[in-house]
Amino acid sequence: TAFRLLQDHPLVAADRIALLGLSLGVTVVLSITAYSEAVKPRCCVCISGSHACRIGATQSIEETSQGIDKKYTKARTDEENRIIWRDVLLPIPEDIDLKVEMGRITCPLLLVVGQDDQNWAAVESADDMKQMMERAGNSHLLTTLSYPGAGHLIEPPYGPHCRACTFVLQPGQQRVVMLWGGLTKPYTVAQEDSWEKILGFLREHLCHIVKHHVQSRL
Q1: How much of the chain, in percent, has pLDDT values that exceed 70?
Q2: Would you say 46 and 30 are in contact if contact means Cβ atoms under 8 Å apart?
Q3: What is the pLDDT of residues 160-200, one digit of tens each?
Q4: 2-206 has which CATH code?
Q5: What is the CA radius of gyration of the chain?
Q6: By CB neighbour count within 10 A (0-12 exposed, 13-18 middle, 19+ buried), where does 139 fall?
């Protein structure tokens, strides 16, 4: 597996590997972390995603994606005929079999959420994940960064703000204009702040601690 390949690399600490997911990638990261016996990340970063669908032992990523796309009728359009996809995941199901069991998460988890996300129900998902982890007694592992006015695409700093763009729906190959949400200034604030904190989170959980009394022999 890709995880084992990283573990076997001579420049990688095998017990200090993180998983990072964006959008549907969050579903992948959470499903692997909760259910895989082979992949045990040291920590996880999840950006603009949801636990309200999951990838099981008998269901591929493609099948999960197609299952979401089949709920297309729940999507809305705005006054410019841009697709608002977030309703496809709403309401967040109460049935534990329809979402990732957050109580199974045993490593530190960082959620990054844009409060104006028009593509995924990231805000509602983050709230439900927190409640699930509080009930399970592992909420101490959870850190949430939530940004007013930011949309779905929260990426490394200094990239252009893309509020909406052309998108191809699977499996029918239908071309639509997808609304991601967010305003330019809040988006740039979210980019810069979240990236700094993501790097800090990864340093905290992945880097070896160098004791101050140990002196360099260079």
Answers
A1: 87
A2: yes
A3: 999 999 998 876 788 999 999 999 999 999 999 999 999 99
A4: 3.40.50.1820
A5: 18
A6: middle
Q: Are 61 and 21 contacting, i.e. CB atoms less than 8 angstroms apart?
A: no
Q: Are 52 and 93 in contact (CB under 8 A)?
A: yes
Task: Give per-residue pLDDT as tens, 112-170.
Answer: 999 999 999 999 999 999 999 999 999 999 999 999 999 999 999 999 999 999 998 87
Nearest to 43 by CA among 1, 5, 8, 13: 13
Instruction: Count CB atoms within 10 A of the CB of residue 109.
Output: 25
Instruction: With beta carbons less than 8 A apart as the criterion, state whether 27 and 54 touch.
Output: yes
CB 33 within 8 A of CB 51: no
Whole-angstrom distance, CA of residue 34 vs CA of residue 16: 17
Query: Residue 182 corresponds to which amino acid?
Result: G
**Rounded-to-integer distance, Cα 34 and Cα 48, Å:** 18
Reported pTM? 0.89
175: number of CA atoms within 13 Å, CB side? 2
